[in-house]
Amino acid sequence: MTMDPTHRAGVDVAEPAAAPASPGTEPGLHMRPGRWLDGWDPENEAFWAARGRAIAGTNLRWSVFCEFLGFVVWQLWSIVAVQLPAAGFDLTSSQVFWLISMPSLVGATLRVPYTFMVPLLGGRNWTVVSALLLLAPTIGLAVAVSDQTTSFTTLLVLAGLAGFGGGNFASSMANITYFYPAREKGWALGLNAAGGNLGAAVAQLVVPVVISLGAAATLRLPLAGLVWVPLILLAAWGARRYMHNLTHARGDLAGSLAALREPHLWVMAFLYIGTFGSFIGFSGVFPKLINDVFPGFSSFAVGGAAVSLTFLGPLVGSLTRPYGGRLADRFGGARMTVTAFAAMALIALAVVLTLPLANFWLFLVLFLALFTASGFGNGATYKMIPTIFAVRGRAGTGSVGGERKASAALGLISAIGAYGGFVIPQVLNASAATTGSYDAAFYGFVTAYALMLGVTWLCYLRRSSVFARAGV
């Protein structure tokens, strides 16, 4: 394989030199200006071993870093909003809930257009743009919280801009799927998702420390946004320098429209609201719940800084997601999803029944178990989608194949599921406003998880179901 010297100068230094081509085994990979790659063929095993794996790995690493920062930004207001009343902002509890939930509302909505940005602009190009967009909510947050007279409307708009971070997941997953062969897509997408999800945990660990370290009696809230600016600039630079655009990456509008007409897309979106929606929703609201129910445990002084234990929830939820997918591979996604919903219902019930004990450590352990079950359910539920659409494809439903529908459905379901991040805080808000406690909300969650368990069994585990026979 030959390459123009001007193009060779721009090749990632981590990529290996081309192996001698064997006739018919390695396509003519060529990089054009703008780091556009022609001839990408990961299903060709010789190409994948010689060049493909290293190039895909480079793109995956920078994609994970950018998506990680997206989740960090997505979660910033869940931490900062709780601190605003103590910092002198005149906000009601309901307004704080709106600041917490607005990033999820915007982020979920943005996931659909973000998915189509990769084929429209190129994966590398859009990763750079989407990373730079994170500067708006981080710098905007820093400016807004510097002035106690900032209106609630302005704060709400800036909280909505943090939704840029939530949209990053969809474009990142859409981009990486083009780089990997079918036999390795699951693992690569699992790493990409888990690496991004960890941003929620890191934000909840780092931000309380940064804003309180050496601040004495006054929190340095602007640092909650400013501390991430250098990393965002690094991510944008790295994506521009090392990532690639693939010329064969094309949007599939017909596949998306066909998937939207499938009833099972909406069933799976409902189930994913229960798993991923619970993960992102409880991640966002966990700091406020602890602050309201156990204010004495909202943070712990460690070496002049305030450390919050809320990061443990999204941490365990992120780390258990790959294991949910792995067990789903072995025992079936529907069985593991039913297991997850059963666990989530029982744990949510235990939370509300033990609240009168006023035991923070029991509350924390139960919530960590709830995060674990939701993370497990994320992996299991997501694993069901390709199998369901493969079964539908074999049944000959429609003119668009099952694989194309599944690919489109993965992005659409991830978008709809993210609305759970808006729903959960608002349900808790309504419960507190109408009853003065969170009990009604948790009884509602128990009922929802039981309903989702029933839907999973009815649609995918009944003996008479074609999906049960296919091992969905």
Query: What strand order characterises the main sheet?
Result: 1-2-3
**Radius of gyration, in angstroms, nearest whole number:** 23 Å
Number of domains: 2
Content-based structural category:
mainly alpha
Task: Just name the CATH architecture of the largest domain.
Answer: Up-down Bundle
Number of strands: 5
- Helical content, roughly? over 70%
Low-confidence stretches: 1-26
Identify the overall geometry: globular
What name is given to the CATH topology of the largest domain?
Growth Hormone, Chain: A
Largest sheet: 3 strands, mixed
Distance between the termini: 43 Å
- CATH level-4 homologous superfamily of the largest domain: MFS general substrate transporter like domains
- Name of the top-level CATH class of the largest domain: Mainly Alpha
Describe this structure in words.
Strand 1 and strand 2 form a beta hairpin. The longest helix is centred in the first third of the chain and has 39 residues, at 45-83. The model is unreliable at 1-26 (pLDDT under 50). The strands form 2 sheets. This protein has a 3-stranded mixed β-sheet with strand order 1-2-3. Helix 13 runs parallel beside helix 15 (360-394). It has 472 residues and is mainly alpha-helical. It has 2 domains: 34-251, Up-down Bundle (Growth Hormone, Chain: A), CATH 1.20.1250; 253-298 and 305-472, Growth Hormone, Chain: A (Up-down Bundle). The protein has helices at residues 5-8, 45-83, 93-121, 123-133, 135-144, 152-161, 163-179, 182-212, 223-226, 229-242, 253-260, 263-293, 312-331, 333-354, 360-394, 402-417, 420-435, 439-460, 466-469, and strands at residues 30-32, 36-38, 245-246, 300-302, 305-307. The radius of gyration is 23 Å and the shape is globular. It has 19 helices and 5 strands.
